[in-house]
């Protein structure tokens, strides 16, 4: 799939501009008190058979959404042909989920694996706390969705999808560039974009749609790459400082979807 194919369907509920607001550029616009701490990074997910976006009667139901679509949950925007994603920052967290039958969803976020010392393995190999909640090791990729005007986004991956995050990191760390003196070095994570689509997967427990990740174009092949590089540096610094967060809370509505395979 090429960059031309990785385009989004129009976002829902986004009104068209009815006037020229360019005259307000540089003037007070209502965002004077908005900081990075006031914003959440929207989540990209693969829609599954139990996703609320494809389930009639759910508040998030989208009549155009289909199983296998990559979906921006925050902006209700679907990407049926996949996305071009420029990774900027990698983070791991251990999410604490209540049992599916409880309907309580996400119960806590742990920044280290120390919580695993309190867990025991159940018959399916999941890490379960004494209170009955289970811990899901979750890899989070923050970056720019080039298929949506380089929108800041994040992709959480857990359980069967952890190996997909490892694949992207392996592809990235295996890159080598050559200096003028002939020596080689590994470029930063955001050196290259990646083509991300969905594919059917299964095991003895069931079937689901998982991530497929392939190398895309280097950042320098994008027309506005110098401005993108500046945006990436600022975004990465904000993430490292913890001043911006991914919209993890939006996963609660999908607890029934991800409880079995953690396809987020």
| Global mean pLDDT | 86
Q: How much β-strand is present in the residues?
A: 25-35%
* Alpha-beta content class: mainly beta
Please give the domain count.
1
What's the number of extended β-strand segments? 15
Shape: globular
Largest sheet: 8 strands, antiparallel
Radius of gyration over all CA atoms, rounded: 20 Å
Number of helices: 3
Written as H for each helix and E for each strand, in order along the chain, the element string is EEEEEEEEEEHEEEEHEH
Give the secondary structure arrangement, pairings included.
Elements: E1 40-41, E2 44-46, E3 70-72, E4 77-79, E5 83-97, E6 106-110, E7 120-121, E8 127-128, E9 134-145, E10 151-158, H1 162-173, E11 177-178, E12 184-185, E13 192-203, E14 206-218, H2 225-241, E15 245-246, H3 255-258
Parallel strand pairs: 1-15
Antiparallel strand pairs: 2-3, 3-4, 5-6, 5-9, 5-13, 7-8, 8-9, 9-10, 11-12, 13-14
Could you explain how this protein is built, in words?
The chain has 264 residues and is mainly β. The chain has one domain. The chain has three helices and 15 strands. Strands 5, 6, 7, 8, 9, 10, 13 and 14 form an eight-stranded antiparallel sheet that branches. A three-stranded antiparallel sheet has the order 2-3-4, with no helix packed on it. It has a two-stranded parallel ribbon with strand order 1-15. The protein starts with 39 loop residues before the first strand and ends in a 6-residue tail after the last helix. About 3% of the residues have low confidence.
């Amino acid at each position: 799939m090429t960059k031309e194919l990785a385009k989004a369907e129009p976002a829902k509920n986004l009104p068209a501009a009815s006037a020229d607001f360019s005259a307000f550029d540089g003037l007070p616009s209502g965002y004077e008190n908005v900081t990075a701490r006031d914003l959440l990074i929207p989540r990209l997910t693969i829609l599954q058979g139990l996703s609320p976006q494809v389930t009639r009667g759910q508040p998030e139901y989208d009549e155009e959404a289909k199983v296998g679509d990559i979906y921006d949950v925050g902006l209700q925007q679907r990407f049926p042909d996949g996305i071009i994603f420029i990774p900027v920052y990698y983070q791991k967290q251990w999410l604490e989920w209540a049992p599916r039958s409880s309907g309580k969803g996400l119960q806590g976020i742990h920044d280290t694996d120390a919580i695993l010392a309190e867990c025991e393995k159940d018959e399916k190999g999941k890490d379960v706390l004494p209170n009955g909640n289970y811990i899901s090791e979750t890899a989070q990729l923050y970056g720019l969705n080039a298929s949506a005007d380089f929108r800041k986004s994040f992709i959480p991956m857990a359980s069967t999808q952890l190996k997909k995050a490892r694949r992207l990191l392996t592809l990235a760390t295996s890159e080598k560039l050559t200096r003028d003196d002939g020596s080689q070095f590994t470029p930063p994570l955001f050196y290259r974009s990646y083509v991300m689509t969905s594919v059917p997967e299964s095991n003895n427990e069931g079937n689901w749609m998982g991530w497929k990740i392939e190398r895309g174009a280097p950042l320098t092949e994008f027309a506005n790459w110098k401005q993108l590089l500046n945006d990436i540096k600022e975004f990465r610094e904000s993430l490292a400082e913890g001043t911006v967060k991914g919209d993890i809370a939006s996963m609660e509505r999908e607890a029934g979807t991800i409880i079995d395979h953690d396809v987020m």
